[in-house]
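WARN no homologs supplied; continuing
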Amino acid sequence: MSEESAELPRRSAARTAKLASLPIGVAGRVVGGWGKRLTGQSQEEVSAAVSEKTAEQLFAVLGQLKGGAMKFGQALSVFEAAVPDAYAAPYREALTKLQSAAPPMRAKLTHRVLDEQLGKGWRRRFARFDDEPVAAASIGQVHRAEWHDGREVAVKVQYPGADEALRGDLRQLRRFSRLFQAIVPGADVKPLLAELSERMDEELDYRTEADNQRAFAAAFDGDPHVLVPKVVASAPKVVVTEWITGTPLAKIIEGGTVDQRNSAGRLLAEFHYSSPERAKLLHSDPHPGNFMICPDGRLCVIDFGAATKLPNGAPPALGTIMRLALDADHDELLRVLRAEGFVQPSTEIDAEDVYSYLAPLVEPLRTSRFHFTRRWAQRQAGRLTDTRRADFQTGRSLNLPPQWLMIHRVTAGTVGIQCQLDAEFDVRAIVTRWQPGFAE
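OK structure emitted
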């Protein structure tokens, strides 16, 4: 890799040109596909080839640019379970790569950031520091090191120019939201991009991430099921935490045993639903690159740059809505949805239509064990995005209040990972224990 390609591309014109190549490339392949069909290739062969080439380009562009492009790709990755099987394989591979891989920056740049953030004598704080990063993601890369007291630590170093790149990418990606919606139909792309933009400043300041991680580590300290590495030191663009060894969740998804998949899905649900009560926070970046399974079976959670403050815990209205949908209490369900702002006062909508829209989404809570599958995710995505179906029209009449946006997306992302895992477990018991309003 050249020195130039190892750095975070910063110039706005260059980044814009790379991002613009995505829709142009897709359009060119579609036109080329028509030509191939005229020469005798089947529609299936052409569609498969177009999907594969588009996926390759998606990873190459988003992965190389890092910044907002990379972060957007990571956020999309949890929704690949909803992509129809005919198109899923190439995107599954490309988006999975985006969860934990990106070209690293040069050691000289890494040292410069460490000089600025930890002081010129930063080397004295480490007994050992490995210049070769072990992971490189959207706005920073991770190095393995040994702290001066002998502890193995992970050192996350932010790319120079990450703030400039992140802001520019997200502005540009908004222009192409319809393209990405077609690639990953299970994702609601416009709100996703808006949300990434809103939490951008928090993620760029690693001190905020360190504070979030300290809160989670304290809340789950000694927990038999979840491990959160403790923070050792932090600065605006560097954070040092305990080093944890484990199996990345992406590997469990790719080739884990049935028991490993089921256990991972259950642990993920336990962490998701218990965090608001225990930490008063919601881990808001659910993609497989942020989770590992430890040798002792615990779920290790990393990367707390995005966390939503819930000082009063999860809203009881969420549990009430789940329960009413399970009980088919149409009228009361509509009343609560209106009270919470999901249905605007001026909107006329039938209570039974609202129930029909929501009932399949609470299907995992109807039984003591539910099997989260890609097929189930695909059915839900198809039902909600098919313009010919009544559920699509009902969805257009509903409103997502701002205070519910993050809870909605994180829950959807968590379910997406569970479908990738093909996990089967008792999610109802977890919701009953941790979600206020559900069992009342």
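The CA atoms of residues 331 and 375 lie 31 Å apart.
OK
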